Amino acid sequence: MELDQLQQIVINALEDVKAIDIEVIDTTKLTALFDRMIIASGNSGRQTRALARNVQDEVKKAGGTVASVEGEDSGDWVLVDLGGIVVHVMQPAVRAYYNLEELWKATPKNPKPAPKA
Known about the structure:
It is found in: Cytoplasm. GO terms for molecular function: ribosomal large subunit binding. One of its GO terms (biological process) is negative regulation of ribosome biogenesis. With about 120 residues, the chain is α+β, with helices and mostly antiparallel strands. The radius of gyration is 15 Å and the shape is globular. It has one domain: Beta Polymerase, domain 2 (2-Layer Sandwich), CATH 3.30.460. It has helices spanning about 5-15, 45-60, 90-100, 100-105, and strands at about 20-25, 35-40, 70, 75-80, 85-90.
């Protein structure tokens, strides 16, 4: 399955279950492990688990494979590994604490100016 097609399936699956603040980060220049990271929030453990489950179901329905899933027990942070795409479904407080968007973006939101020589 093509990466862009897989990405759209994941986004649609997250939107179907009313995910909050879906963000896609292109990681091709940052790591060889995966090409995209998709981060989304759910308001409760129940919703994060439902979001992760819907992503898995829709990917499988489209003929894709799910490599692994972590964190379904607590529902605070569920990771769905789809090979080329890693999906993080988190509750807002956990997402704010770990701030994966800032960690994985190649350019920070507020870059510091270079010191003058």
